[in-house]
Amino acid sequence: MGLSQDLYKKAKKLIPGGTQLLSKRPEIFLPDLWPAYYEKAKGCRVWDLDGNKYTDMSYMGIGASILGYADKDVDSAVKTAVDKGSMCTLNCPEEVELAELLCKLHPWAEMVRYARTGGEAMAIAVRIARAKTGKDLVLFCGYHGWHDWYLSANLADDKALDGHLLPGLKPKGVPRVLKNSAIPFSYNNIKGFLSLVDKYKNKIGTVVMEPVRNYYPEKGFLETIREMTEKLKIVLIFDEITSGWRLNLGGAHLKLGVNPDIAVFGKGISNGYPMAAIIGKSEVMEVAQETFISSTYWTERIGPVAALATIRKLKERDVPSHLINIGKKIQNGWRESAEKNRLKISVSGIYPLGHFSFNYEDPLILKTLFTQLMLERGFLATDSFYASYAHREKNVEKYLEVVDEVFEFIARAIKENKVKKYLKGPICHSGFRRLV
Ligand SMILES: Cc1ncc(COP(=O)(O)O)c(C=O)c1O
After folding, report:
1. Which of 389, 49, 388, 384 shows the shortest CA–CA distance to 213?
2. How far is the CA of 292 from the centre of ligand 1 (A)?
């Protein structure tokens, strides 16, 4: 089936796992049929290698393209930086300008370090926190990347049980000595958090979590965590790699009214160009000088320039309000169409990062059929929608019209017990599930 699939077959022989990111594996969407590769992407439009054009109503660069693909303002700033030299023996001044801006937007923070990807930025934050407290134990909630500190949570006493805490993430190759150095807790489960604090009290040096993601924090959840971490001199890290810049300008924690000791940004901060920032209180961040955290490409110019241009545009156009508005329309649209067609679904997520799931015995089959039918109608679509500034009302209207048609089709197929019959390829993989 087409150049894309042929290339993906070749890739799987040359690149272990086929892609560099689990969330970009075609099998997660639609095995054998997902377009897999793009020739061109602009706004929310994507062209595949076979000349097909789609509207992306799925993950928009897996959360990176908050303004849309190939945004002209960010790209023009980047092109200027390229022409002026994106690498040099000297440092680029833009990293100081960006540090100043990030601290101004987050008045509790005084210092900033940079990386280029989310996972490595989280590893830096955890290193700084451990260096500050001298304690190894990390309590965490949610997904924070691929590094050893995080994946070690999936090492069990019995090797056969490895992987049971974070389903789908295999910790093979992570030193077993790291077992019990990172322990997960569930979002909005304050009792669970407090009982871990009670159990490990003096051993905990770091708490890592997203301030918000699939659900809003229940009253007192973030406040209790802040109170306990302050009391026990634990460094609280908010991972804002995906939650940041979508509900407001800066970290979502600003809107939620709870400040961490360190916050980490990535993805959306630079609209598709590699960039990540670790911001924090100076008493914590200063410790970065007492450990070794250093890398050549953390000094290049494109990342900070892209971040400055992205933040400028997010502010000028009040992009977060747009994302909330568009995301709300999509979530309401899913609900209304499901109700109308008597399809049982659950909708979750903050408005800019919406998600739905089919409440049936075998939801993956239905998810696969949904993606297949949407693709046939010109949409890259799955059970999530990440809003971007490039999504306009007309995209939403057209998408919801097609969703309604597809939901009706699926509801009929369920009734007639014909869902499997309509599938043109294998069922999608479930992939990694976040611990929530
Ligand atoms: C909350 C959160 N933390 C960390 C990461 C890892 O970032 P990256 O894929 O850039 O390494 C992600 C990516 O999905 C994320 O959503």
Report:
1. 384
2. 23
